[in-house]
Amino acid sequence: MKSYYDMIDQTFNFPTSEFKVKKNTLHFNDVDLMSIIKQYGTPLKLTYLPRISRNIKYANKLFNDAIKKFKYKGSYTYCYCSKSSHFSFVLEECLKSGTHIETSSAFDIPIVQKLFEKGKITKKTYILCNGFKRPLYTENISNLLNEGFVNCIPILDNLNELDVYSEKVKIPFKVGIRMASDEEPNFAFYTSRLGIRYADLIDLYKNHIKDHPYAKLKMLHFFINTGIRDSAYYWSELSRFVHKYCELKKIAPELDSIDIGGGFPTINSLHFEYDYKYMAEQIVENIKWICDKNHVAVPDIFTEFGSYTVSESGAVIYSVLDQKLQNDKELWYMIDGSFITHLPDVWGLNHKYLMLPINKWNDNFHRVNIGGLTCDSMDYYDSEAHISEVFLPVVNNGEQLYFGFFHTGAYQEALGGYGGIQHCLIPAPKHVIIDKDDEGNLRSRLFAEEQDSESMLKILGY
Q1: Domain hosting residue 285, numbered range
Q2: Alpha-carbon distance 34 to 401, whole Å?
Q3: Residue 390 and residue 324 share a domain
Q4: Banded pLDDT at 109 (limits 50, 70, 90)
C-alpha cells in the first residue's frame, strides 16, 4: 500500500503555496503545526492573521485591475462583514489592510465605537449597517450619525425604517436601500425576506427620500446567498439589479454607489477551482455595459466579503483518542472534540472543510469515519468535498495521530456559542493566534485557554 503522501501527491497538485510536508509533518502557511501542538496541545483553534491581509489585498488588486482594464469611471471599496468573525484581532487585521465595515446587529455598533476609540478607524470609515433592525440597532446607528460618522450608511430594509432616523437625526446623512433579490430556484422561497421589493423602490425614493431635509440616497445594495459564482442565476440577478440602479439613477442623481453582497467562495478542498480574476472582470464589465446602454454614470462598487476575508485564516486541530471497529468495515477514529460544538457548519449544513493529517504522512492510509465527543448520532464526519470518503493514516498501538480541518475561520465560533453552553458541555478549545513580527518571523500567542467548568457553572446558575 502506498503512503498517505503518495495518495495526495497523485490525486492533487501538491504541495501548494499554503500546504507543504517537511520531515513527515504538515506545514500550514509555513507554520510547523507539530511545534504548535507540542506547545499548546489539542484540541486547538488556530488563526493565521497574515492570510486575512493577503486575501483582502488580492481582491482589491483584482477589482482595481478590472477597473483599469475596462476604463471604468468608478472606484472599488472593500468592506468586511463583521458577522463572519467579531474577534478584535480579526477586525484589526482587516482594518490594517484598509477595509471598511459592514454590520448586522445592534451590538456591532459598540464594536465600531471601540475601534474608533483605539484609533483603528476614523469618522470617514464606511460603516454599512445592514439587517432588519430592532429599536436598539436604529438607536445606535442614529447615535453614530449624530456623532459625525459621515460615512455611516443605514441600509433601509423595510419601508418604515427611515422614519426612525428622521426623528432622531437632525444633521445631513446618507442612506442605502437593500433590494429584495430572488432566491435561487431550489430555495424554499421565491423572494428573499430581506430588503425592499423592486416594485416599491421608486415610490420609496419619491415619497420619502427625494425631498427629505437631511437624508440623501447614496447606495443600492443586494445580496445573493450563493455568493459570487459563475452561474445563470448570479448573472441574471446582478443584471436585474444594475438595471434597477440605472432606472433610479435617472431620477436620483445623488445615487452613486452599489453594494454587491455575497462574497467570493473559499477553498474547501485541494481540488478547488475558481477563476477569481475572471469573475471580477466580468462583474465590472457587465456593470459598465448595462450603465452605458442606459446612458447613466457607472456607480462606485462596494463588496462585503466575510467568509472570503477570514475563512482561510482558520484551522481546528484534533488528536485521535482511540479507534473503534463497529462492524466488519466501519472504522471510527474518535477525536478529542466535537463537530457540533467546534465546527457547527459540519453538522448543520453538511459543510465540507479541507482536512489533512498533521503527522504520519509517510505511513499507510485507510478509509475511516471521524466521531466527535458528544452523544449525538450526527456528530461525525465521513466525506470530503471531492469524494464521499475520508482517508487518514493508519494508527498502530502506541502511536498518536493529529489532523486538522482548515479554512474554518468564519462563523464557527458565533454559531457554536463561543464562551457559552454547548452540547454535552463540550468546552471551547484553546485558541492560538499566529502572526509575523516586523522582520517577518512567525510568532504565536495564546488568545484563550480551553473553557473551564467554572465559567459554565456560572452561566448555568450554580
Answers
A1: 51-310
A2: 11
A3: yes
A4: very high
pTM of the model: 0.94
The count of structural domains within the chain is: 2
Phi and psi at 375, nearest 5°, equal -85, 5
pLDDT at 1 over 70: no
**Residue 207: C-alpha distances to residues 163, 191, 201, 210, 366 (Å):** 12, 24, 10, 7, 67
Q: Which amino acid is at 331?
A: L
Q: Kindly report the length of the chain.
A: 462
Residue 360 φ/ψ region, left for φ over 0, alpha for ψ in the -120 to 50 degree band, beta for the rest: left
**Closest of 54, 126, 107 to residue 409, by C-alpha:** 54
Q: Using CA atoms, how far apart are residues 185 and 387, in angstroms rounded to an integer?
A: 26
Residues 25 and 17: their CA atoms lie apart, in Å, by 16
Cell triple for residue 294? 442606459
Confidence of residue 224 (pLDDT cuts 50, 70, 90): confident
Map residue 77 onto helix, strand or coil. Answer: strand
Distance from C-alpha of 288 to C-alpha of 297, rounded to nearest angstrom: 9
What letter does residue 424 receive in the DSSP assignment?
Answer: G
Among 255, 284, 310, give the residue marking a domain's end.
Answer: 310
State the pLDDT confidence band at 330, using cuts at 50, 70 and 90. very high
Of the residues 278, 310, 342, which one is the last residue of a structural domain? 310
d(CA 281, CA 277) in angstroms, rounded, equals: 6
Query: Is it the case that residue 425 has pLDDT exceeding 70?
Result: yes
